[in-house]
UniProtKB/TrEMBL annotation:
HTH gntR-type domain: residues covered: 11-78
Any Pfam family: GntR
Keyword annotations of the record: DNA-binding, Transcription, Transcription regulation
Protein name, as recorded: Transcriptional regulator, GntR family
PROSITE patterns: HTH_GNTR
InterPro entries, per database record: GntR_C, TF_FadR/GntR_C, Tscrpt_reg_HTH_GntR, WH-like_DNA-bd_sf, WH_DNA-bd_sf
UniProt source species: Christensenella hongkongensis
Length: 219
């Protein structure tokens, strides 16, 4: 029992280290190209090397960091290729997730939540609040993603979200969010009209517009 409890504590420390370092990478506090010095991270997080080392390996697995034998671990750079690949997947998988969700019979409470997030996005635009705008944007998509009934699809899409958030924060544009709000409203309008095919097309168009914008900004 004692051994199990010790492992659980180590797992919690590893998760804490992973989440904190991931937050610093996504928010651009640790920008692409920054070397992740194990000793410095241990001091910053107040942890021993074991959980930090495990967290760094997990970040490599998630493609948020890159390991260079004999040199160390570096925060992965965001490239145009990354943007293209992430959005190519989302153009297909997000639309599939929305389709599965919309054909469920008990989805009205979740649709109401989606509508609420769109209204909050408008408020965040008016107050020029990028961080909360991003939070409601992600929460909108989480609503249908978490209610597809397909756990494997959910797992695949969640694995893209860390990279997606990095792309958004690397540009950090309220200008783009003006269009993002309008595109989300169009998706909701189609859902309210029970035109599910149109809603899927609006979502696909939103993904394509976001892809084009971020490619232009990173080129």
């Amino acid at each position: 029992m004692a051994k199990y409890q010790t492992d659980a504590k180590n797992d919690n420390k590893r998760d804490y280290a992973y989440n904190r370092i991931k937050e610093m990478i996504i928010s651009n506090e640790l920008p692409g190209g920054t070397f992740l010095i194990e000793r410095q991270l241990c001091d910053k997080l107040g942890l021993s090397r074991t959980p930090v080392r495990s967290a760094l390996q997990e970040l490599i697995n998630d493609k948020l960091a890159v390991g260079f034998p004999g040199k160390g671990i570096m925060v992965a750079e965001i490239t145009v290729k990354d943007v293209i690949e992430v959005y190519q997947l989302r153009e297909v998988l997000d639309v599939l997730a929305l389709k599965l969700f919309l054909h469920k019979l008990d989805n009205k409470p979740v649709i109401d939540k989606m509508r609420s997030h769109v209204l909050s996005m408008k408020e965040m635009l008016e107050s020029n609040n990028f961080e909360d705008m991003t939070m409601h944007d992600m929460a909108f998509h989480s609503c249908y993603l978490n209610n597809t009934g397909n756990s494997r699809l959910q797992e695949i899409l969640r694995s893209l979200w860390n990279q997606m958030q990095r792309i958004v924060f690397s540009v950090k544009s309220m200008e783009r969010y003006q269009e993002t709000y309008r595109e989300h409203q169009q998706i909701m309008d189609a859902i309210d009209e029970n035109d599910f095919e149109k809603a899927q097309e609006m979502l696909r168009a939103h993904m394509i517009a976001s892809k084009v914008y971020h490619i232009e900004r990173l080129s």
